What does this fold into?
Amino acid sequence: MPVVSGSSARGLAEDLARQLDWQHVQMESRRFPDGEGYVRVPEDAISSVRDQDVVVVSNTFPDSGIVETLLILEAISDVRAGRLASLKGGMDSQDDVGAGLFLAIPYFGYSRQDKRFQKGEAISAQALGRIFAGHCDGIVVLDLHAPVALEGLEVPVKFVSAMPEVAEYLSENVKPDFILSPDKGAIERASSVARAIGCRFSYLEKVRIDAHTILHQPKDLDVEGSIVAIIDDMISTGGTICKASEALHSQGATEVHAACTHGLFTDGAISRLDKFVDGVHATNSLPNPRSSISGGKALARGVRELLDI
It folds into this structure.
């Protein structure tokens, strides 16, 4: 079966294809001078795209990734439906091969916009979920921030986590004695890593100061002489982790590491984190300078479950 990628997730698509022992197909993709995107199913891949089920691996971040994902799905849908006529290739049509187009999203953009906090807001994660569901037969999402955002779609959705791979990596390379969640929302992910490694676990307390200010307060933790790993689904600015790391070092931690599935690392986060932590570790769900953990195994679990293979 073909695993197809565009410009945003080629490395992870190749990784997934290896995990499944499937064929990797790289779409032709580029940008026109005005910034508009272009995609095309390579001619030598048309037969495989029509003859077998297809898994598209594509990130929906940044916004250009949303457009490219939709264009890839549309191009493959046309090929599978037999709509092959073109200006340069003449009139050509074949039978519609039916359902069998699936979307694997390593990082789902807008995943944190999963609620309506004020009247008149769009629930962006739900809106995008409905759009993608209208262009494929099933979706796999890696470590979605709030899975409730994609409930009730018209196609099956499988949520999968890279935390087993994060735990394996940390166990082999960091050897932590203590796992910390940055807030209660990340407890399930972080505690699963702690259980897999067999070490202690706790979380930070979130305290709301006002409508715009939230503090994450480290409790008095017994981390004297310990190697601590702070676990979350994503790291954006890294501010919470830096504050937590400072507190942990003051309480006697010998090393503090940060690990996540999605390394967004916005606004100079890497330089900021390097001043406070001893290591930053992320999967390759997004291209980033600290992608040391493969997300392919996790995505493969989701694809197998979705396709029941």
About this structure: Residues 2-161+296-307 form a domain with the Rossmann fold fold (CATH 3.40.50.2020). Residues 63-80 form the longest helix (18 residues).
